[in-house]
Design brief:
With about 270 residues, this protein is of the alpha/beta class. Helices cover about 45% and strands about 15% of the residues. The protein has eleven helices and ten strands. Helix 1 (about 5-15) packs across helix 2 (about 20-25), helix 1 (about 5-15) crosses helix 3 and helix 10 (about 220-230) crosses helix 11 (about 245-260). The chain is elongated, with a radius of gyration of 26 Å.
């Protein structure tokens, strides 16, 4: 591979100082029009591009946001991350994606992101050990956690799981359903713990026990397999609540395409 051109090469080629090269590539940098044109011409001839990371380190600001994610097979997560990345780009931030295969790898991915001197970190998967959260605070790295409960010293963003699942429970009960099942996600996830707890609690308050709870692992395949097991049981549920959209899509396709039920939203006596 050919060696990449450096700022020193550009300075030598243009007959200017390295400081002039640096100022020529710095927005608002103090440099004459003639010098800027010479630097840009030399850079083009040498194939030089300024190192944004190196410049950011000297300015103590890299313009990078570390984004720690988990499994990207979820349509919701992909949609959310796409919008998040676009919004950050609109504000002149670049994202450094750190993908984890397991939820227990989140802390390590967060530390790896910090090694790139990111200006902030957004965690959209798994849980972060308290010791690692404390380390981010030691280095004054802002940390935002998505889909998590309140954490001391950390900004968190979470939907209203208790309120949402209570609305779902009331809706199913008002429709007259009494055999109600639940397809669950990862039991260690904060959102799963809230959704399963408050859904079961809302049914119990109405005197209706949860008929069954089957794991779906937050995946399409898991939701499909869980729905098949529930709907082919000797006493199938009248309604199924899924812990996330991906499992719900799997459950709906199981009802429509595998079991041949007529309606996706309302399958005979089964509401999904």
């Amino acid at each position: 591979m050919n060696r990449r051109a450096t700022a020193e090469d550009v300075a030598r080629h243009a007959g200017v100082s390295q400081a002039t090269v640096s100022r020529a590539f710095t927005p608002g940098g103090s440099v004459s029009i003639e010098a800027r044109e010479k630097v840009q011409k030399a850079a083009q001839e040498l194939g030089y591009r300024p190192n944004a990371l190196a410049r950011g380190l000297t300015q103590r600001r890299t313009g990078l946001i570390g984004l720690v994610t988990g499994d990207l097979s979820s349509l919701y997560d992909c949609h959310m991350l796409s919008h998040l990345g676009g919004a950050l780009r609109a504000e002149q931030w670049q994202t450094l994606l750190m993908r984890t295969a397991r939820t227990d790898e989140t802390g390590g991915a967060l530390l790896e992101a910090m090694a790139y001197q990111v200006d902030a970190i957004i965690v959209a998967a798994g849980s972060v050990p308290p010791a690692i959260i404390q380390e981010t605070q030691t280095y004054s790295t802002p940390l935002v956690m998505l889909g998590k409960g309140e954490t001391p010293g950390v900004d968190t963003i979470c939907c209203d799981n208790p309120g949402a699942v209570r609305l779902i429970a009331r809706h199913l009960l008002a429709a007259g359903h009494r055999r109600i099942a639940y397809i669950a996600g990862n039991p260690t996830a904060f959102s799963e713990q809230e959704r399963s707890h408050y859904f079961t609690e809302a049914l119990a308050e109405a005197g209706v026990p949860l008929t069954a709870s089957v794991p779906g692992e937050y995946t399409y395949e898991g939701g499909q397999a869980a729905a098949l097991a529930l709907l082919t049981a000797p006493e199938p549920p009248e309604a199924i609540f899924c812990g996330n959209d991906t499992m719900a899509l799997g459950a709906l396709d199981a009802a429509r395409h595998i079991l041949g039920l007529k309606s996706a939203a309302r399958c005979g006596d089964h509401r999904l």
